[in-house]
Amino acid sequence: MSTNASEPVTTRPTQSPRTRRTKPTHNDPNLSFPSTSTSGNYTLPSTSTSYTKASSSSASVSSRTSLSSLRNTISENPHIYSFSEIRSATNNFLLKKYSSSSTNCWRCNLRGRDVMIFQRKFRRKPETYNLRERLSVICRSHHNSIIKLLGASISDDYIYLVYEFINGANLSDCLRNSKNPDFTVLSTWMSRMQILTDLAHGLDYIHNNTGLNLNLVHNHIKSSSIVVTEPSFNAKICHFGTAQLCGETDDDDDHERKRKVSSFKRESEISEIVEEEDEQQPIPTSLTRSSSKKMQFEGVRGYMSPEFQATGVPTQKSDVYGLGVVMLELISGEEPLKYKFDKSRGEFARTSVIDAARSALYGREEGDGGGGLRKFVDRKLKDSFPVDLAVKVTRVAMECVDEDPDKRPDMERVSRKISKLYLESKNWVDTMKIPTGISFSLGPR
């Protein structure tokens, strides 16, 4: 696993109710989103994160009981950080960046917690009320497969999102070790099914189970945005809430959003894709465009659905597409897209994990005894996997990456299917009783 180290952040214990006393200071983080300019002045209701000593004589027993009950039934309020706190925690932004991706991020200590701070530029600044509503909803959401958003700060055209720090390595690095290509910590079928099940449950929660009538979209589903933790190889989804808070999602109602997606054009010149660096294999400069006057939006090649590439509008179905690609990565161990120089043609040729999976399934259906699928599955599993279940998982993934968004399953259905396949995989392990560290081959590849 990666050497990125810190203990997972735990939820703070419920505190006894006490009356709050607001300090009369101009930069009280509970009053507003402080900003270095007037453009970023978003006011929010008080969401204090610290409590002063109470004068218990002024509070009735009933109010104490009510507050205590309330705190036990809801998640903690979002932290509203002052910009000076963010600047101090990052040593005036001179602290070494945590990754080499295009998004600035720092691991630091903020209000006594080990956190990750991400600097994001607003795509479209939400209205004050909408921003307050979204931040409250997202910070109050809890799921074991989602990294928790603690709070935010705003300065000018940037929003600083503060997440709990989770010790682990991203899924991309776990699958593909550049220093040792023949090694992976995910060397068993069950380790990959565990990750896949966690992801399906987490994304299903985001789409359907936050308890609110909101069509939440993640918009950043990719293997490098998934943290794998030890010792059980559980997966946690990063960047929950980024799309809503940064203005990446369409504010139109659901009907209008569906109309836009259903009428999308597939011509490549509709929009210009701004590549979001993903610490993956670099794309040859000959394949990129540098001078376009079309609408720009961010995305990672290989994870973007056809309709997202055409419209720039993220939807729950485009999230499903991204998850389908990650599923194929888990099965094959390969990157979504590869670019290799073809000497015979004198140009770069692109290979897709989706095309490879499609060929593997067609070979299976033509009666090759599963040989095509066996070649598709990651060699680092050393043939120690249930072929029939691998076929079923691949088929679910291919449903998720269907070019027609209306033909893709929703996350509730995907989650149910993956949960069933996880249980079948456990039964396979129990039946085979495979010794740890020993592999075998059921036939030639």
TrEMBL record:
<dbReference type="Pfam" id="PF00069">
    <property type="entry name" value="Pkinase"/>
</dbReference>
<protein>
    <recommendedName>
        <fullName>Protein kinase domain-containing protein</fullName>
    </recommendedName>
</protein>
<dbReference type="InterPro" id="IPR011009">
    <property type="entry name" value="Kinase-like_dom_sf"/>
</dbReference>
<dbReference type="GO" id="GO:0005524">
    <property type="term" value="F:ATP binding"/>
</dbReference>
<dbReference type="InterPro" id="IPR001245">
    <property type="entry name" value="Ser-Thr/Tyr_kinase_cat_dom"/>
</dbReference>
<feature type="compositionally biased region" description="Low complexity">
    <location>
        <begin position="46"/>
        <end position="58"/>
    </location>
</feature>
<feature type="compositionally biased region" description="Polar residues">
    <location>
        <begin position="27"/>
        <end position="45"/>
    </location>
</feature>
<dbReference type="Pfam" id="PF07714">
    <property type="entry name" value="PK_Tyr_Ser-Thr"/>
</dbReference>
<feature type="domain" description="Protein kinase">
    <location>
        <begin position="83"/>
        <end position="423"/>
    </location>
</feature>
<feature type="compositionally biased region" description="Low complexity">
    <location>
        <begin position="8"/>
        <end position="17"/>
    </location>
</feature>
<dbReference type="InterPro" id="IPR000719">
    <property type="entry name" value="Prot_kinase_dom"/>
</dbReference>
<feature type="compositionally biased region" description="Acidic residues">
    <location>
        <begin position="270"/>
        <end position="280"/>
    </location>
</feature>
<feature type="region of interest" description="Disordered">
    <location>
        <begin position="1"/>
        <end position="58"/>
    </location>
</feature>
<dbReference type="GO" id="GO:0004672">
    <property type="term" value="F:protein kinase activity"/>
</dbReference>
<feature type="region of interest" description="Disordered">
    <location>
        <begin position="248"/>
        <end position="291"/>
    </location>
</feature>
<feature type="compositionally biased region" description="Polar residues">
    <location>
        <begin position="282"/>
        <end position="291"/>
    </location>
</feature>
